Amino acid sequence: MAAHDVRHAHLPVSVLADQIFGHLPRADQRAWAQAYLTGLLTTDGKKSIRRMAATVSRSPTASQSMHQFLNASPWDWAPARAELMRWVEQQLDPRAWVLSVAVLRKRGDHSCGVHRRFVPATGRSVNCQLAVGAFLSTGATAVPVHWGLLLPGAWVEDHARRARARIPESVGQRSVEQHALDLVDALCGSTQLSPRPVVADLSHHSGVISLVRGLTARGREFVVSLPGRTPVVPVGRTTARGAYSANLPAPVEAQRLFGLKHAGHLRPGAHDGHGGADRTATMTTLVRLPQVRLARHTPHATYRIFGMPSYSGPRSARIWLTNMTQRRTDELLALAGLQHRAGTAVQSLEDDFGLLDFEGRSFPGWHHHMTLVSAASAYNLLELSGRRPGSQEGS
Fold first, then answer.
1. Among the four residues 71, 160, 201, 293, which has the most C-beta atoms within 10 Å?
2. CA-to-CA distance for 146 and 33, rounded, in angstroms?
3. What local confidence, expressed as pLDDT, does residue 82 receive?
4. Is residue 260 part of a domain?
5. For the Transposase IS701-like DDE domain, which residue ranges apply (predicted)?
């Protein structure tokens, strides 16, 4: 990425830094927050601390001070992320809160949370950190505002590792879906707007049903991608040809509801979530989840399941579950289509804002870096690139 001249942006980067990091108690912390943010925005190539320090300062000790601020200074990142979210909301009117998983490849095994994991998208096992991100999304873009870091049992249970990585005592082992729910709670606690629908694709992870239960218990509207083999119980008739047409007491795999050999129900002009319309063979029906009650004497919740078959074959069909049963199918498709915006945003964080360039091994340092990277990305997108609420695709 070519270095930006942040001096001529509509909002000086110093003003944004003051808003997001103004809670930091010391003047030197606030100054280095602005310096790191500026370095992420203006340094070409790899965003190493040494390169960024050289970009923003002539002091021979600048890199040491920047490293100290990032990895050793005990500042709280939660207020910074809350302020970041509120600033982004002032610029955008987000249509959804999108949750996405990012695989951060790492060398060695000393960085906090690093472990070996199979990545379905690549078909390979990689050495990585697994991050769960929350994005404010419109039809045009997605802006990262909150993050969680998965800590496998080997990190949580090893006291020496915990001490070296400075993992707080209050932080334990949490699954991907638990991190996702934590992020939703953080967004609810930070937003100045009404809560937005949650859009999540955690279909490569085993806890999707737990996520659905958690969102339902919180009263959040959602569109969540389901693995094809997720058990569901159909309710009434379905619009999918050849699928089950009566109430069935026994659960069936979600993918069986659509027959997968049938064309399904054609809905001309359905919104494709990318700013256009297509003739997607969208199949939809009402379902319940097996043996799930939120409380004693509480009826089973009813959800709507809809599928978007892929032209590459029936086994590539996308299946989504929502509790917004009265929404039009094209509206639900548009929300589901926002998921890919988060993936695009993560790629931009890697390519342009040093997502993978964190120099440190500590838990606080990682969260500090992710907060600053998110702020730099938001500033670039909403100030330097001139994006405004009126420039949304697919609104």
1. 201
2. 17
3. 97
4. yes
5. 21-241
* Segment 284-318, tens digit of pLDDT: 889 999 865 544 544 578 999 998 655 544 455 68
Residues 270, 333 contacting (CB under 8 angstroms): yes
Please spell the DSSP secondary structure of 138-203, one letter per residue: -SS-EEEEEEEE---HHHHS-HHHHHHHT--TT-----HHHHHHHHHHHHHHH-SSPPPPEEE--T
**Cα–Cα distance between 9 and 11 in angstroms, integer?**
5
Residue 280 lies in a domain: yes
What residue numbers bound the domain in which 273 lies? 222-323
Residue by residue, DSSP assigns 247-315 as: --SS-EEGGGGGTTTS---B-TTEE-SSSSEE--B-EEEEEE-TT--SSTTPPPPEEEEEEEEETTEEE
Q: With contact defined as beta carbons under 8 Å apart, do 224 and 215 qualify? A: yes
Is 285 in contact with 241 (CB distance < 8 Å)?
A: no
Q: Please choose, from the candidates 142, 156, 206, the residue with its C-alpha nearest in 3D space to the C-alpha of residue 177.
A: 206
Give the number of other CB atoms < 10 A from CB of residue 323. Answer: 19
Integer Cα distance of 200 and 220 in angstroms: 12
Could you tell me which residues come within 8 angstroms of residue 328 by beta carbon, excluding any fewer than 6 positions away? none
Total domains present in the chain: 1
229: confidence class by pLDDT, cuts 50, 70, 90:
confident
Rounded to a whole number of angstroms, the CA Rg of the chain reads 22
Tokens (6 digits) for 85: 């979210």
Query: Three-state DSSP class for 116?
Result: strand
Reported as a pLDDT band with limits 50, 70 and 90, residue 122 is: confident
Question: For residue 292, what are its two tokens?
Answer: 């799930």
Residue 223's contacts (CB-CB under 8 Å, 6 or more residues apart) are 96, 197, 198, 199, 200, 320, 321, 322, 324, 332, 335, 336
pLDDT tens digit sequence for 191-206: 999 999 999 998 788 7
Percent of the chain's residues with pLDDT above 70: 81
Say whether pTM exceeds 0.90. Answer: no
